[in-house]
């Protein structure tokens, strides 16, 4: 059976698709969780494209994309392998129309494999408090909630911190449920 999605490093031509997926997901997911005044700047497509370009010039930023059989970008994982004390997954988003088909799981596994290849053994990420669907997804993949902290992008917003202490399991688990 041919895999439904493949994972590759992003190229410049992917950035608008990545931006569109992020903006759509933020509008859908965070509107009930974040005050409108805080959320609105993150729903501005030109501003988000500029922000994405700025993130990518940071040394050590990795951006992987999930593409379908036609080559269309359907998801992405943006992470910082050199972040201390542990690598940090900044964003993982899958297009609303593609959710629950395995792209998110493949992206997480690919990020774990990339980190392991670079000598990193663990990973952390934040889930905006109240985003129960994302929390469940990460827990199915073995993430453990280790606390709650304020986010660095908006006053008054908090996120649950998830950690994978051993990425080997995430990178190699064949039977984990698909996202």
SS class: alpha+beta
From the 3D structure, determine the CATH topology.
Aminopeptidase
Strand content: 25-35%
Number of domains: 1
Please give the CATH architecture: 3-Layer(aba) Sandwich
CATH class: Alpha Beta
Number of strands: 7
Order of helices and strands: EHHHEEEHEHEEH
Q: Flag low-confidence runs.
A: 174-179
Helix content: 25-40%
Overall pLDDT score? 91
Major sheet: arrangement of strands: 1-2-3-4-5-7-6
Termini Cα gap: 19 Å
Radius of gyration over C-alpha positions, nearest whole angstrom: 15 Å
- Main β-sheet, in a few words? 7 strands, mixed
What's the topology here?
Elements (H helix, E strand, L loop, with lengths): L4 E5 L5 H16 L5 H4 L5 H12 L5 E7 L4 E8 L7 E7 L8 H15 L5 E6 L3 H9 L3 E7 L7 E7 L2 H6 L7
Parallel strand pairs: 4-5
Antiparallel strand pairs: 1-2, 2-3, 3-4, 5-7, 6-7
Descriptive notes:
There is one protein chain. This protein has one domain (5-172): Aminopeptidase, CATH 3.40.630. It contains 6 helices and 7 strands. It is globular. Helix 1 packs across helix 3 (45-56). Helix 4 (103-117) links the parallel strand 4 (88-94) and strand 5. With 179 residues, it is an alpha+beta fold. The two termini are 19 Å apart. Residues 174-179 have low confidence and may be disordered. It has a 7-stranded mixed sheet, sandwiched between helices. The protein has helices at residues 15-30, 36-39, 45-56, 103-117, 132-140, 167-172, and strands at residues 5-9, 62-68, 73-80, 88-94, 123-128, 144-150, 158-164.
């Amino acid at each position: 059976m041919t895999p439904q999605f493949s994972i590759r490093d992003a190229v410049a031509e992917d950035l608008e698709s990545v931006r569109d997926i992020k903006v759509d997901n933020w509008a859908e997911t965070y509107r009930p969780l974040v005050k409108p005044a805080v959320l609105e700047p993150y729903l501005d497509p030109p501003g988000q494209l500029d922000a994405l370009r700025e993130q990518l010039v940071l040394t050590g930023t990795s951006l992987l994309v999930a593409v379908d059989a036609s080559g269309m970008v359907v998801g992405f994982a943006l992470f910082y392998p050199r972040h201390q004390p542990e690598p940090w997954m900044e964003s993982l988003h899958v297009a609303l129309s593609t959710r629950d088909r395995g792209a998110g799981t493949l992206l997480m596994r690919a990020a774990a494999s990339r980190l392991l290849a670079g000598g990193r053994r663990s990973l952390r990420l934040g889930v905006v408090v109240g985003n129960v669907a994302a929390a469940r997804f990460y827990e199915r993949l073995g993430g453990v909630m280790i606390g709650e902290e304020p986010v660095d992008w908006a006053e008054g917003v908090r996120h649950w911190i998830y950690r994978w202490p051993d990425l080997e399991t995430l990178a190699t688990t064949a039977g984990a449920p698909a996202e």
